[in-house]
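Each record in this resource describes a single protein on a pair of labelled lines. An example record follows, reproduced without changes.
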Amino acid sequence: MSVTFYSRLEPQTRGDDLLTGVAAAVYDPAWMLARQWQLGELVGADAGSPIRVRYTADVLRVRTLSAGGPVRDVSDGGLPWEAAVAAAPVRTGPAWTLRLRIDTGRELLAQLRAHGLQDRAAAVLEAFPVEPAVPTESGPDPADPAAGLAAAAAGRVPDGAAAYRHWSPGLRAVPPVVASAGSVPVDDALRDALLDWLGFCDQTVAEPVGGAWDSARFRYRAALSAPGPNATVQLSAADHCGGPLDWWAFDVTSEPGDPGVPAETVDLHLLPSRVQFAGMPTPRWWEFEESNVDYGQVEANPADLARMALLEFAFEYGNDHFAIPVRLPVGSLCRTTALLVTDTFGLTIRVAPAATSSTWRTARGSQHWTMFTLTEADAPSEWFCLPNVSADLTSSRPIEEILLARDEMANLVWAIEGTVEGPEGRPTDRRREQAAPAVPTPAGDGQSPRWLLGTPIPAFWYPLVVDPADPTILVVQMLGTAATPPRGTFLGVGSRVAVDAVPREGTRLRRDYVSTRGPDGRTVAWSRRRSVLGRGEGSAGLRFDTVREAPL
């Protein structure tokens, strides 16, 4: 005979007060101290925490920009460096789209009305007419949107390209000069209207400073100058491909200073604060942490050195970094002259830049890398650059795209013009212009062999052949009498391209429109050119000395 007993434990409160249970009090403090000792939380070091910092520095403002043309003043900071260096010519270029001509002409009429010069609109229309693309009696071609746009603007809107080329050079002179155009009366009222119209043109699309774009290598070359009383610093970007123009794009060279330039220094007495980052582990063991980051779930194998270094930094050294706020003008260079840190023991320590230490110089040959460090004569520079760059860019679809690809079978380099900017200002896919290949007819009655010197290639493929006088240069040519020249702005018939500018992977050239806000809040827009790696080798299927069946 057996007897089974069941017991049940229930938590029952003996009072209405819940504070004792919620407090979760620990009645053995020695246990918690032991756990802190086991985890190393009680291990101390003979070092103090920083409580006061004195920071002094020399500041140089970037004043001028040289990009293969006249030196431009960029000290106002209104135009980002990307726009000043990498802007492609739009209104100052030879190729105006029909849409740009009409939009510029509409703004000219709007400025005339705003200044009370409506009576001169007819004379401006007569002096700069927009010619229709098709005869008026036949009407616009419904399949061609540019023809309809030209027919609608003819007689209603002046040609903005013709007016800009006629009036822009004189308006940019000092003092502004208005050239006569047809029967348009020239006076101060017209000059004021044209100056506002020219300001609209400059605000809508930024124009390049000079010839920074190297059309043979598809790179930008520009130099920025920051004069100072003790030294003049030059920032040179000799191989910029058109992307973000940040600190890593520049090399530094120093020259003797100009005593006439006023000195600008920074002298700060600050209280340092610990560096914080999202999901940072707490430095004490018995503290609650945020649950949005779980470092324990990070998987790393012995080869994941970067991941393990990140975890070690977060766990071991995350709370050992301090920061002080230093305000610098945008578009300037800063050289730290002294960084004095005073700790809780009253000791003052001079902190030197890590890039100038002997350890860094010894490891230079082993490809040592630092952040935000410029290079001067293959050595770390003491200057820090705060560039005037765009924080956020809004870009359009590529309106022009060319792929340069090597064809080993044909022993050529092809320039494949896939997308061009159409007359209406929109991207046009040239691949759709290629007619569908004819269906081959089986050989039989009425067919005879036909010898071909070379097989046909697409109309938007242009060969680049080696220049006989210079084997390091490729020249753009056309094949066939029915071929049309390139329609884009990157290449033309006879353009010269460096051989090393087209690697085995190829080169892709793109152009689009971007806009951003400058440091002063103004909207800045420009046409941007970029050069990136291609997608490998290509083949046009070109064959020489072939025989095909053809009708008798």
